[in-house]
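Hey Z.,

So I finally got round to the pyridoxal-5'-phosphate thing we talked about over coffee. Here's the setup:
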Amino acid sequence: MKDSIYKIPLFALNYGVEEEQAVLEVLNSKWISSGPKCQELENLFCQLFNSKYALAVTNCTSALHMSLVALGVGQGDEVIVPSLTFVATANAIKYVGATPVFCDIASYENLTIDPERIRKLITPRTRAIIVMHYAGFPCDMSAINEIARENNLRIIEDACHAPLSDYGSRKLGTLGDFGCFSFFSNKNISTGEGGLLLTQDIDLYEKTKLLRSHGMTSLSYERSTGHQTTYDVVDLGFNYRLDDIRASLGIVQLNKLSSDLNKRKTLREYYIDKLVKIDGLIIPFCEYHDFVSNYIFPIVLKDSNHQKRDRLRELLRSRGIQTSVHYPAVHRFELYNDKTTCLEITEYVSDCEITLPFYSSLTKEKIDYIVTTLNEFITVNEVPCAV
Ligand SMILES: *Cc1c(COP(=O)(O)O)cnc(C)c1O
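And the result:
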């Protein structure tokens, strides 16, 4: 374990001997690139998410990129996307030469893209909507699917935060044309780097399967096992393949995900019970009770600004509590520098949100310490966010 100034980190890996054994098994098999473990991971995703097709890929960014390529989105097209997301969601739109059109979120309590505001941003150039299920809480997919149907738009779900989140009887990531997942170290499923794409459409599946590996009609594993002897190249593809070492980690992680998420559910309830007693805090999705992945634990300070928020984060840091911000609004980054866009709710949340430590092995004692410290700084010092 690396040295850290933090008593309580933002996130802790849920790793054990099973991960170690899985990797050793792959190393000893002498097949380490994309092969049987990737297929096993894809099959497991299809089963658990009740999805028709799955493709293991290098990361979520490549999944988003391939989704847009496969849907034929390109130069001159517009794609509606939230600004309160990780920058990769919007970057993927730029990769294909299209224009991201940033949309505000629903409210301080519901940090997902607002369907009514999506409607107002649609132009003749709009081709697709990328939604992002913040912290694993679902966007209003019934309203968004309706908007997409009426306007002939495609939907990509950035489901990085949302593995195994329920949406009625379905799973997030299976409601749009594509669902994109990340296995980056700090995600619910951790493999270091990695990702996966879900789709329910055979043509989109075939297309992205080609794009994943240089547009080649056969894979090296298929040739090594004698199933294929040659290949053609039929499309301008990429190398977005996952390897079997990481896939084996993904299988172990996915198999223990439900139990991890159940622990998170209990911890979230405990956190909320304590936090509601502090004035000056908004707890997003506080009233939401369906089963979700609970990827992160965000709070939003009332009547605050980014200076007060940053000061509070600094105070928490001085007591050994690591926090983060999800997210700096994408439209305010220099790369996007979109001064004409005004997204009131997104900008406020971006300035006044704090992400508290959250992971399945977090203890109630640690939550008590976090909440007590937070309460002390908010109500006693009254510096950061006096109401
Ligand atoms: C992590 C994350 C990504 C990027 O995933 P990578 O696998 O690192 O490419 C994209 N969008 C969201 C919302 C994320 O949290």
